[in-house]
Amino acid sequence: MSATERALELVRAAARAADDKKAADIVALDVSAHLPLADAFVIASASNERQVVAIAEGIEEELAALGAKAARREGIREGRWALLDFNDVIVHVMHDEERGYYELERLWKDCPVIDLQLDA
Q1: What domains are there in the chain, each with its CATH number?
Q2: Rounded Cα distance, 14 and 116, in Å
Q3: Which terminal residue of the chain has fewer beta carbons within 10 Å of its beta carbon, N or C?
Q4: Which of 22-26, 75-79, 94-98 has the lowest mean pLDDT?
Q5: ∠106-45-32 over CA atoms, to 5°?
Q6: Residue 28 in contact with residue 43, Cβ under 8 Å?
Q7: What three-state secondary structure class fits 69?
């Protein structure tokens, strides 16, 4: 099983929005074979709390334009780890320190990486 075309569309839109807000180390993982609740994770880093908030809000705006609304939003106010659940796609915007501590990529290392098709 792999991520749906709609999930891939949302993943790439979220990655573009994060990139526009200067997120670092943007990665997307196809978790569909391991997690029944979602098709993909998008993980992005920010160096400070204000940037975490700005990236998360930018992603929400971009995906809303595609007709996707976050079913759940967690941690945005604190600015350390924002989690946006768009059902098929779960977005993690993490402060650099949290990302280094939790190492989500290591936890999900068996999942294929999604090509984000971002311009270099």
Answers
A1: 5-107 (3.30.460.10)
A2: 9
A3: C
A4: 75-79
A5: 45
A6: yes
A7: coil
- List CB contacts of 53: < 8 A, sequence separation 6 or more: 76, 77, 79, 82
What tens digit of pLDDT does each residue of 80-110 get? 999 999 999 999 999 999 999 999 999 999 9
Cα 58 to chain centroid distance, Å, stands at: 12
Give the number of other CB atoms < 10 A from CB of residue 80: 15
Round to whole Å and give the CA distance between 42 and 15.
Answer: 7
What are the pLDDT digits (tens) for 29-38?
A: 999 999 889 9
Bridge partners of 113? Answer: 29
Say which amino acid occupies 96. D
DSSP readout, 71-101? Answer: SEEESTTTTSEEEEE-SSEEEEEEEHHHHHH
Residue type, 9: E
Residue 113 makes CB contacts below 8 A (sequence gap 6+) with 27, 28, 29, 30
Q: Where are the alpha helices (DSSP H) in the chain?
A: 5-20, 49-65, 96-102, 104-107
